[in-house]
User: Fold Pyridoxal phosphate-dependent aminotransferase from Cohnella suwonensis.
Amino acid sequence: QITPAQRLQVLPEQFFAALVAKANARAATGRDVINLGQGNPDLPTPSNVVDSLKAAADKPQYHKYPPFRGFPFLKEAVAKRYKEDYGVDLDPATEVAVLFGGKAGLIEISQCLLNPGDVCLVPDPGYPDYWSGVALAGAEMSFMPLRAENAFLPDYEALPAEAVDKAKLMFLNYPNNPTSAIATPAFYEETVAFARRNHIVVASDFAYGAIGFDGKRPVSFLETPGAKEVGVEFYTLSKTYNMAGWRVGFAIGNAQIVEMINLIQDHMYCSLFGGIQEAAAEALSGSQQSVRDLVATYESRRNALYGALEEIGWKADKPAGSFFCWLPVPEGYTSMSFANLLLEEADVVVAPGTGFGANGEGYVRLGLLTTEDRLREVAARIGRLNLFK
Ligand code: PLP
Assistant:
């Protein structure tokens, strides 16, 4: 009998791993399952990026160990993109760390900053990986409720003083998964003041930073005066360039925190394959037309789905950004019982809101991750259950 360390015993089964297994089991019975549950982009990586990797694979310099902290050209490409998109000045050598996807950094930052007994402020609903990092660090979470009436932004004044006192780290994520809300510059200014006042490091998860609808450009936390003094932003190519499988992300901002993340990574990895780094730099430095096209695609999918949902009587606010729809469940259902009903009666996979925290009760999350026709088919199948009229 092999006993896992106590550290491991605090980890539950990974939420999306469980959801995917459930969807696959259903599909294996031969049914036409439409999976809108996991945030896995269905669009292809831009061809200039794929071509760049193909050419780079032949370069012998990439067949050796890469530099521990990534190639300078990649960090320079990130700094240029931030300057162009957000007007943020970065020193690529000290203010950018290369990560195996944003996810790695979201776990690592808790290892870097939290001791047992410390508190981390976590949005509820929110991305479950934040919890795992905090649990692995042996620290405690205090949830910041995100409510529709407050535009899904946390109300710092309403947080329990004791938790704020013990807090060393907080996670924010806008455009938000799962609620799709976008943050305002004023909210980020309030965040910098709150973080300074209470000596809390801000981890801004900007995974959906490129995806804002109706002409709204999501703001980066680092655009806020003073942001670099209090935190870092996690930036990833997964969603912006449909590169989820490539595993390229960055921690950007406060040099001390970037150094801590680099240090922990020096002991765990030796950075990404050089060919992937070259292709990632091509994604960031080449034409950005694919990003504009991607946002337009998600926006038309959103409009197609919401048009069809309105026809079946399922009314909700349209998402402002990200590619998620945060929809209230009909009366008489919990988020879990409704998600189960959709799987069993409509072969549609959605994520139950409670997978993102207790405040997700009453909602389900749908990803805009298939064609407009298939999204209309989702609405039609749900319509046949006659739940809304
Ligand atoms: N943060 C949020 C809010 C996400 O939804 C995701 C992926 O779904 C990630 C981070 C992880 O991104 P990456 O692929 O860069 O690890």
Notes: The pocket of pyridoxal-5'-phosphate is lined by residues 39, 101-103, 127, 173, 177, 205, 207, 236, 238, 244, 249 (CB under 6 Å). The chain has a mean pLDDT of 95. The two ends are 55 Å apart (CA to CA). The chain is about 45% helix and 15% strand.
